[in-house]
Structures are given as C-alpha cells and as structure tokens.
Amino acid sequence: MEDPFRTIEWKGDHIRLLDQTLLPSREEYIAIRTVDEMCDAIYRLAVRGAPAIGVAACMGVALGMLTAPEDNREEFDTRFKAICAQISATRPTAVNLFWAVERMEKLFQAASGMAPAQIKELLVAEAIAAEREDRTICENIGLMGRDLIDDGDTILTHCNAGGLATAGYGTALGVIRAAFEQGKKIKVFSDETRPLNQGSRITCWELQKLAIPVTLITDSTAGSLMQRGLIQKVIVGADRIAFNGDAANKIGTYSVAVLAHYHKIPFYVAAPLSTIDKKIDSGTQIRIEERDPCEVTHIGGICVAPSDVRALNYAFDVTPHELIAGIITECGVARDPFVKDFESFFSR
C-alpha cells in the first residue's frame, strides 16, 4: 500500500513538509527555506513525532549550510555550530532531535579536510539518507510487531505515532498497519489526546486515509472500554526511552499504561533504536517539555476556561518499564529486563 501523503522531503533548495497544525481541515504543504523557518516548524508542531523531528533536524542543518560562505573557513565552521545549537534548542524531550544533530556533527568533523562545497554536498546527502532510512526502519518495526496483534483485535493508541510522526509508515501505527496489510481484521480506538488533539486530528485522519477502521474516543473513555473487555492491545510510540526501558511519550500515556496493567492488557511501545537514549539509566533523567498554558485553556483559539485560571501543560509523561510488555524496534521486540535486549540490538 502506497503512502497517501509525504510527511517531509528534500526538494533541492527547500524542504517540503505537511503542516500538521492544519489537519484535518486542511491538507497543506509548506516550503521551509531557512533554519529559522525549520525551527519554528518544529516548535509549533507543524512537524512532530520523534523520528520526523530527527529527519527535520538533519534536513535543517543541511539547508542552513547551503548559504554558508565558502571563502572563509572559520566563518563556515562557526555557521555550522550556530545552526546545530539553534536546532537543538527547539524541543527538549525527543531524543531523535539530538541524535540527528550529533549525526550531522560527526559527518562535519569527519569531512573537516574537505572543501566547503564538498561538505555541503555531503550534508545534503546525509539528510536525504536519514529520511530514506527512517522509512525503512519503520517498515521493519511493523514487520517485527505485527505478529503481536491477533486477528480480530481492537487496539488502543494514544497520540500519533504513524507516518506523520516519521518519514513514512509509522511506529505504533506502522505495527497496526503491517497487521492490517497481513489481512487481519482489526479495529483501532484512538484517544483524542488533549490538549492538542493529535489523536483526533491526526491519527484518525491518517487511519482513515489507510482505510483502517478507527473510532475516536475521549481520553477518559479508555478505562471504561478496557473494563468492558473491548480492548485487547495497547500500542503507543515514544519520544525518548531510557536504557532501562522507561519510556517518555505524549502526556496521558502513563495513565493508559496503568489502566492496561490493571486490566491485564498488553501495553507495547514501538520506536526505532534512535529513540533509545543510551546516556540515561532511567526515566527520571528525561527532561519533560512544558508548553504554553494557552494550549490547555484554549481549543482552536477559543477560550474554554476562566481567563485568569492557572494551567499546567506538560507535553509528556514517563511510563515505567515495569508496565511495558515489550518495546518493538527494527531489530526485534525487547522485553524486561530491557537492558539485555537493548545491548544485543545495539551490538548488531
């Protein structure tokens, strides 16, 4: 099945990406021509989802260097460092952002003896390669996880971890899609995912594009459906995974995991190895992004709360590894104790 949309792609002198803030009412692609525009797109969630942010970061670095002066090496190097720092400052939780910047930094350092024009070509090639690799990785995640889904299952997902959160195919939705493409008769419940409604606006839109049966529910409905035996599996994505398996994902994921554990429903996380942060031992070390309170007090620009009320807007929470039945990666499904499987995957 071909993708009905492209999340992000390199177009020579600019980057074309689907503006996810406008979905589902408008399917509009925007042209990113500067680093400032890419940073703005990442921050305001025009492009979102850890893998997609990683690809966007790679492309942003390459794009920014296209106009770097080639006749002054010191200025050329300074420009590169500034671009990397600017992109790194956009969002703190998704590790793929920093993984991508480090990937471009390693390439830049390895090519230090080359002419600036050659380095620019290498950076562009690396950014394009990152986009293609992400698509392949997501397809492999789908293959690794599809047998966890049985024919007739109804799966709950939270937020969006589909093709729109990646360069294509998706992680959590990639597993669901792979099972659907096997011919399994499955259904999906999609949490709305307040406050920005990525589940209602984006996941439902994407699943409808793929002809996968989906029903939208409020976040507070999930427990009732589990209690009635209407959900057999939960599959979500992740923005950063500690080396012990603690997983940060969109706010509300932890609540879903607790509910699933109580009702003895397998709770799975699907993510590429690049989302696993080998530098941190547990989820307590994951920095949680706090966003504008207006995202909580307003919906579609309309105030739905008293004008002077205080609002707290954590963008993510951390699900402890004990609540996770398995973490689905492109190398296989890791089980608790996750460290052992992660070490095996990274050594391949």
Automatic annotation (TrEMBL):
- NADP listed as a keyword: no
Which gene is this protein's source?
Answer: mtnA
**What is this enzyme's EC?**
5.3.1.23
Catalytic activity entry: 5-(methylsulfanyl)-alpha-D-ribose 1-phosphate = 5-(methylsulfanyl)-D-ribulose 1-phosphate
This chain's source organism reads Desulfomonile tiedjei (strain ATCC 49306 / DSM 6799 / DCB-1)
What domain of life does the UniProt record list for this protein's source?
Answer: Bacteria
Q: Which family does it belong to?
A: Belongs to the EIF-2B alpha/beta/delta subunits family. MtnA subfamily.
Instruction: Quote the function comment for this protein.
Output: Catalyzes the interconversion of methylthioribose-1-phosphate (MTR-1-P) into methylthioribulose-1-phosphate (MTRu-1-P).
- Please identify the protein, giving its name as recorded: Methylthioribose-1-phosphate isomerase
